[in-house]
Amino acid sequence: MSTAAPGFTSHTRFITGRWLRAQYRQPALIAFTLVQPAIWLLLFGQLFKGVVNIPGFSDSSYIAFLTPGIVMMTALMTSGWSGTTFIADMERGVMDRMLASPVSRGGLMAGQLISNATTTLIQTILVFAIGMAAGARYDGGAAGYLVTIGVSMLVGIGFGSLSNAVALLTRQQEALIGISQFVSLPLTFMSSIMIDPSVAPHWVNVAARFNPVDWAAIAARQALAADPDWSSVLRHSGLLLAFTLFVGWLSTRAFRTYQRSV
């Protein structure tokens, strides 16, 4: 046990560095991942700004309500592409060489997810900057922003883990993209990302209770409120953390299935 932790740490650091260097050598990809959430925020913010006039809507500013939701939507959508990097490694033979080496399987997974989490962090800051420029204001202070950043990164890591697991199991980019869309779209619309639960259909509210993306949106909005319900923040953040750890463990075990099928 004494060598496992240092090995995991050093392997994670090495893999993280590898993916960060590859990621930031592609400025066009970086620009796309930064511009996309801006388009979502401004588009949805204009299309649905009238929903605040519906009786029962809890916020007087739709852009303020929407901004944390778009943060989580962006983290979800971006993380769905995480597994494409694993598929590229498989096609080039890099994955087989990695798995034949002494590198920790946990480090191999964690390093890639940490590098993706840096993109989520940048996107979160950008979405908030655009939302505030458009008029969104929050009274939750620094704690609210930190909670929002934290839960958005958990969304990115959790669903990035699922994407990686699907990549290892299917080894096909087409299958990964199809499954990613099949999962991300229902999770987006069966949540409070764009609509207040008080004015949504009852069945959507029931489904949202089991939706990790909704847990993140609720935790963020509560933390950003003038009078945060910290018990709700802790409860939903705890559920999200448990989900992230579980799917992270599952995705690491997917390496065994991949090796047996090669």
UniProtKB/TrEMBL annotation:
Keyword Disulfide bond: no
Bilayer topology term: Multi-pass membrane protein
InterPro entries in the record: ABC2_TM (IPR013525), ABC2_TM_bact-type (IPR047817), ABC_2_transport (IPR000412), Nod_factor_ABC_transporter (IPR051784)
A Pfam family matched in the record: ABC2_membrane
Coiled coil stretches, renumbered: none
ABC transmembrane type-2 domain mapped to chain residues: 28-258
Keyword Membrane: yes
Locations listed in the record: Cell membrane; Membrane
Similarity-based family: Belongs to the ABC-2 integral membrane protein family.
Protein known as: Transport permease protein
Organism the protein comes from: Kribbella pittospori
Upper taxonomic lineage: Bacteria, Bacillati, Actinomycetota, Actinomycetes, Propionibacteriales
